[in-house]
Amino acid sequence: MKNIFVDANIIFNVWRREANPSTGENFSQSSKQILKLISRGTVKGCLLSTTAMEIIHGVRVEAEASKGTAAVFAVRQAEAGIAEIGFEIAVPDCGAMAHAYDLLAKFHIDPFDAILISAAVMEKADAVISRDRKLKKKASKLIPVLTPEEFMA
Amino acid sequence: MSLKMEDARKILETFERLKKKGKRKLSAIDEMEGCFTDLFPKEKSSVDIIRENREKMFEK
Question: Is A64 on the interface with B (CB under 8 A)?
Fold first, then answer.
């Protein structure tokens, strides 16, 4: 069974029913297929604890800025959504954090991305699923960083 | 620093809320599509939103 680490933007693609702001390409559809593969148990989907934190933080920040949405409710909804997908929550250990520091220094990967890539490499994951082109450019030497469409192809 | 039993227990407890008890519904993924459509600015991509949030965190 393939083992993938999923970046925050993939989950947001679905929750926001997102289309590419420039081209109108439907981002949600393929990202949803990835989440369905995880939910069915066809692939092992890992969500790093720091990625989960970024998701929750992003939802809370927007909810606090919005007059209509209670932040507490939005965060609970986000946590329930993550739970429903069926991720394995991966917590980076000391080795992963040390490796992340190395990546930050050598490849100029930002701290959050460095931890994600490091944990995925150390878990011998098949790929990181992300639409972040900067991450793909910097980390592809270490592990495949694939869009949902590339993974499904 | 190795992972101690106490650490392992804390990790399990903390992330319990991100694990669903019982059987998951296959339709749940379809049902969650668009659940936060109106929460985020539509003109920004999720990649950009996350990057901006990171920058704000480091600015603080």
Answer: no
